[in-house]
Write a structure and sequence with these properties.
1 helix, about 130 residues, four-stranded mixed sheet, alpha+beta
Length: about 130
């Protein structure tokens, strides 16, 4: 039968091992949590980037077809907003925008000196990042 001193030493070793395991598990959980937040933020940024690209493609299509000359005239500089629910009559309502995208502002500039009076089209997506 082990003596009292050996039992005490074994108890301290077990307590030490349990504390090390607990500290390692806390560190691993913290790393996983931070990685999850970073991934969520990256997904939100990528969704915003593709929403802005879709706004540019939408504007190019509207200008090419010239089927809505009231909201997408061939001259002048103007900005249109793409969102899930907009009050403006010339706004683009896009119900399939991700929840993280607040809106996309599409700017069409005046025809320039480029080939056949080409126009600069740019889009800026505004997105929100909520911690999951």
């Amino acid at each position: 039968m082990p003596s009292f001193d050996k039992k005490a030493a074994i108890l301290f070793i077990v307590i030490g091992v349990v504390m090390v395991v607990a500290l390692l598990s806390v560190a691993i959980l913290r790393i996983v949590s931070n990685h999850s937040r970073l991934t969520h933020h990256s997904v939100s940024r990528i969704q915003a980037q593709y929403a802005a690209k879709s706004g540019v493609i939408y504007a190019m299509d509207k200008l090419r077809r010239n089927d809505d000359a009231t909201c997408w005239p061939a001259t002048g500089t103007y900005t249109r907003r793409m969102c899930r629910s907009c009050a403006d009559s010339c706004a683009v309502i896009e119900l399939t925008l991700p929840i993280s995208i607040d809106h996309v502002d599409i700017t069409v500039d005046e025809p320039g000196d480029g080939i056949s009076g080409t126009r600069k089209i740019s889009a800026t997506a505004t997105f929100t990042y909520d911690t999951p």
